[in-house]
Write a structure and sequence with these properties.
alpha+beta; four-stranded antiparallel sheet; two-stranded antiparallel ribbon; 3 helices; elongated
Length: 145
C-alpha cells in the first residue's frame, strides 16, 4: 500500500499493518522553517511504517541536497544528505499523529556536518581576499621567544 503526498499520518485511522509513504521537502518547506541552518534544497524520503497494536516501527530513508551558509565565505554551499533512521515508539493517547515531513527534516538537519566550508578554491574569491587582508601574521605575545 503506497500512500503518497500524505505527510501527517493519523495513526488511529490507519489500519494495523505495513504502510509506505513518500515525503518531499523543497525550497518552500525549508523557507518556512524558522531559525533553520538549511536555506533551501530538495530532499526526498521513503518511509515504511509497521503499525502494531501498541506501538509502531518506522524506517525512513532521506536523500537529497540542501544548501547551508559556508562558515568561511558566507555564500550558500551544497551538502548531500544520505541517511536512514529507525524509530520504535509506543502509541499513547497524545501521540495520535505522525508528521513525516518534520521527521525527514530532523534527519536531514542532524546529518549536516558541524563545520560548513567549501572545498579549497570554491569559496567566494572576494571574501577570500578580505579574509587574507585581515589575517594577523604577527606572532602572539606568548609565542615570542
Amino acid at each position: 500500500m503506497s500512500e503518497n503526498n500524505h505527510t501527517i499520518i493519523d495513526l488511529k485511522r490507519l489500519p494495523i499493518g505495513v504502510h509506505q509513504f513518500d515525503v518531499e521537502l523543497d525550497d518552500d518547506f525549508f523557507a518556512a522553517q524558522e531559525k533553520s541552518e538549511i536555506l533551501s534544497g530538495k530532499v526526498v524520503g521513503q518511509a515504511t511504517l509497521n503499525l502494531r497494536e501498541e506501538d509502531y516501527l518506522l524506517n525512513i530513508a532521506v536523500r537529497g541536497t540542501v544548501f547551508v551558509v559556508c562558515d568561511r565565505c558566507l555564500d550558500p554551499m551544497p551538502v548531500d544528505i544520505d541517511a536512514d533512521d529507525e524509530i520504535v515508539e509506543s502509541i499513547e493517547s497524545g501521540d495520535e499523529c505522525l508528521d513525516l515531513s518534520w521527521l525527514a527534516y530532523e534527519i536531514a538537519s542532524i546529518n549536516i556536518p558541524i563545520v560548513h566550508c567549501h572545498q579549497a578554491g570554491e569559496c567566494n574569491q572576494q571574501m577570500e581576499l578580505l579574509l587574507h587582508d585581515h589575517l594577523c601574521d604577527e606572532p602572539e605575545p606568548d609565542e615570542i621567544v
